[in-house]
Each structure stands twice: as C-alpha cells, then as structure tokens.
Amino acid sequence: MTRTVIPPPAAQSASIMAPRQGQLGESLAARPARSAWLWGGVALLVAIGVGARLAYLAWASGQPGFGWIDPDYYLAKVLAQPDPDGPHPLVQAIEYKHRGRLFHLPPLYAIYLFGAGLTPWALARAAAVGHAILFGAGVAAIYAIGANVHSRRAGILAAALMVLAPNSLHIAPIFLHEQVYVPLLLMAFAVLTWLLAGDRARGWWVVGGVVFGFAILTRSMPLYYLPFAAAGIVWSATHRPEAARQIAWLALGAAVVTLTYSIWLSAQVGRWIFIENHASISMTAYTQIIRTAPPSPIDESLALLTAFVERPAECLGTFGSFVRSNFRPAAHRWMELYVPSLTGTTRSLVFAYARVMTDAGFAFAVLLAPFGVILARRRLPSTILAMWPPLVVFLTALAAYGGPRYRFPFEVVLYVYFAVVLAGQWHRPSRRDVTVAALTSAVLLPLVW
Description:
The protein has one domain (about 40-275, about 325-449). About 70% of the residues lie in helices and about 0% in strands. It has helices spanning about 10-60, 75-80, 90-95, 110-115, 125-150, 150-165, 165-170, 180-195, 200-220, 220-235, 240-270, 285, 295-310, 310-325, 330-340, 345-375, 380-385, 390-400, 410-425, 430-449, and strands at about 95-100, 100-105. It has a two-stranded antiparallel ribbon. It is globular, with a radius of gyration of 25 Å.
C-alpha cells in the first residue's frame, strides 16, 4: 500500500507559490522589453505619419499647376499687408466677410500661421511642415486615448488606423483650421481620458482644461461638449462633491485661456465676442433670414427655434440631408480633388486603397463604434468620450455644414472604438448594453450604406 504524504501548510504554500513566483519574475523581467517594443511601435507610427505627410507634400508641390489650397483664406489674410489704420493684425486676419456681414473666426489657426512666418523658411511651406508634425502629435495622442479607454493594443490599432487613412495625406497642402484643431482635440481627449482612468491631482485637471481651452480657440465646438462631459462625470461618481471640484478645476483651466482671449478681442472690436461669432453663418438654410450684421446667440437661437416650429418638415429634411452628407462615401470625390493626374494601374490601385480605407474603413468604424463603447475595459472614460461624436454630428448639421471635411473631428474618435473591437480582451457587457449597441448600429447603417 502506497502512503500519501501531505506536506505541512507552510510547505504547501511554498510549493504552490514557487512556480507562480518564477512566472511573476519572468513577467516582470519581460515588462521593460514589452514597453520598449510598444513605445518603439508608437514612435514608428508617428514617424510614418509625419514622413508620409512630408513625402506627399513634396510630391504634390512638384505637380504641374500646384498651388496652396486656402478655402477659408487664413493663409491669404496672414500673408496680406495689414491695414495700418485698421485693428490689430490678428483681428484683421480672423475677419471673415460673408454676404455683407463681418464675422470673426476663432484665432488660434491664424496665430499658428503668424508663428510659422517667424521661421527662416517661407511661411506657407513652414506651416505645411508644421501641419505634418502636429499630425504626428495627434497620432501619439490617439494612441494614448486608446490605451486610456481600453488597452495599449487598442491604442496602437487606433494610431495605425489614423495613419493609414488617405485623408491624413491629402490635406497636407491645404490650409484648414482642422490641421491644428484635430491634433489639439486629440491631446485634450488624451488628457481627459487619462484623468478619468485614475486618481489625479487637481493640477492635472487644470492642465486638461487648458488644453481644451486651446482646442476651443481653434474651433469652439468643444465648448459645447464640456458641460455634457462634466454632467456625466459628476453623475457617475461615487463621491460627487469631489467630482464636482475636479470639474471646477477643469473649467478653470479652460476659462483662463478662452476668457483671456475673449476679453482682449472684445476690447479690440468694441463689443463683446466670446471667442468667435461665425457659428450662425450658414443657418440661413433654416431661418431664411439674411441679416446685415452677425446676430447674437440668443437672436439666432430664437430664429432657429421659430423656423423648426413653423416649418418642421422642411427644417427636419434639411437637417437630415446635412447629417447624411457627413457620412457619405468620399473616395470618388477624394480622387477628383487631390489626385486627378493619376492614370492607369496607379489610379486603380490608389482608388482601391481609398475605397477600403476612406469608405469601408469609416463605415466599419461607424457601425462598430457602439460596440466599442460597451466593450472598453474602462467604462467611465469610454462613456464620456462617446458623447463627442453624436454632439459633433448634431451641431454640424444644425449649423448647416456637411461633407467629409466636417467629419474629421469625430472620425478619429470612432477609430478608437473600432480599435477596441479589434483589440479583444474586452469588458463583458450586459445583455441590455449589447441590445442598445446593436440597435444603435442598425440605426446608423443607412447613413453609411
């Protein structure tokens, strides 16, 4: 008969823990190596993003008839000789005349261009190179967002999707405020999701607000996002007074930046303007009112409400058409505008790439984003970030804007949720969450079909 010897408890613990300690030691030893590979991958994606932009810029500038594309006249106004009898040169650069009315655009892109003019190189080329560098910063920021919301793998995938998107290349010679706005926006979301993923000191909340403030000075739409984000953060907090204090520090950081500029601008023009007043420039599509001067926010809001009450079917139809235009396939238009000189096999290959990455990639990102929201490991940053895309779509359509250009600010966030789905190792959602995500995806399907 064989006798079974049972070791004492201490020996059992030692025998049980020994292999685990060995595995833990191996795991800890492997972490620096994995981190090095990880950061190497992020650096590589940043380098590819910046290098591809610069290579495309070099190619495009060598094409016959090349010229800088300046749809909003930012470049032209910065290059123009300022009127010595007029207001400050920055104020002159952000003035925008439309149908006899004088509007003021957000200032930070013009400030960026003035800064590019201080370099030893030609202003336009220096600014275009700066656009590429900022794009690289945006790639690093979207990695951080993916890592903060779900995992490092999701961050790498989101950064790769951003780099591979054709629209990351073709805007290289175009002077749009999105060149600065989107990287700043991604940096702001990177900081916010990092704040929500752990317990951070109040100073970091101020820093987050400052970054949002600079994004708002490039385009004011994040200003409308912050109250929703603040409400969501406080509502979901286990200790709401502490969450409210954190939000107050965030708001303080944003206010320092935005109010300082607004006070300066208002003193220059002789009336109060909070950042800009061009948001209503195209709302005549709804109100059908041609004004002689920019309306106040209250007047335009009342006119918009009146239009929807008096002509609901017409206004809802107009609103729907603008929403749809932000989701329509863009590959054909991209080819016509940005690579019209390509022919033969090269054109076919480039078009196929654009169809896959611009149209199919965006469609998958739209349809899978609702699932990415609920599958992300860190629910709070995922939920707060998810407020951004629908808000952008709503406000863009309400302002009567549409087209692929206006989806840049929310497209990059959809890539994050697409990356979450691709990354695996998900949070296990409830059946209710899955049902809501599936219904949301079904509602979105006609927009990208």
